[in-house]
Amino acid sequence: MDQHTFMMAYFVLFFLPCVFSTRGRILSAGYESMTSQVPYSGIRKVLTTDNKECKFPFRQGGRIHHHCLTIRSSKPWCSLTHNFDRDLQYGFCAPQKMIPNVSVHTSRRITDPCQVTLCQHGGVCTRIPHTSSAECSCPESFTGTHCEHKKCYEMVHLHYYDTGETWGRIHLRNVEQCTCVAGEIQCERVRYTMCRSNPCQNGGTCRRITATRKEVCNCRWGYGGPHCSVEPESECYTGRGTGYRGVVDTTVSGSRCTAWNSDLLYDELHVGTVDDSPRKGLGNHAYCRNPDKDKMPWCYMLDNGAISWEYCDVPACVMSVRE
Asked: Which domain holds residue 179?
């Protein structure tokens, strides 16, 4: 099957039957997929026949996939981005012998690769369908094939950065450029100028790093995040919770929230589709928010291999009444 035939079949068979909910969940009629409720973290490297890297997991037909597919094609294929529905970029997967995996060689016959695959630091082992391989889904603070690499937690931004990532910050009144190196934050003071405009919220002040032209915020006490939009000590919400800026990131069922800037989101509400998203609390995080004035804070999560949503495990504030 050539690429033109593949794309035509995909549009007819997947986009036309799709049914959309009010928040963009997509369910393709008559189609089931692998079930997974673990958040994604790019772990397993798989190559295509033209030596490009597959991006797992990826979104296709509104569902989340962690392995190569044979849907409407005799050849296994994968997406070259995390969002095939949006980008429509794909490649045919290389034969299994060319695909590195996490299997451990042993003289004993193993039917479940998760019996020997060692996911460290609380990582969850998931068997890859139709193969003898497995992959590790890591907690937020670790990454790597076996979740062996520690990320860097930036207390100013309330965010985990991966090894090699760089960012700017204001710490103890110093403007710094930081890098995550082997799980440790290394920073150096840098030159800066005043900002032309102020993206910092809640009274935060802005500085512009000269070398990178990136704006960084100095937040008032009680606020955090890159733009001072997060209130770490906020434990409840008032009204409908449109102003909730706390750090709860789990739903009422215990599922972990998906980041508002996740590549797995497409038709849903996210930083790219919501007007003035920073002012509505959306950003590079998975904290519960209420950008559409629902009855309480909520978030997107993975449910049976599809993007769905739930209300969050955030209590309403109890207002004391004076006699």
From this structure: 155-218
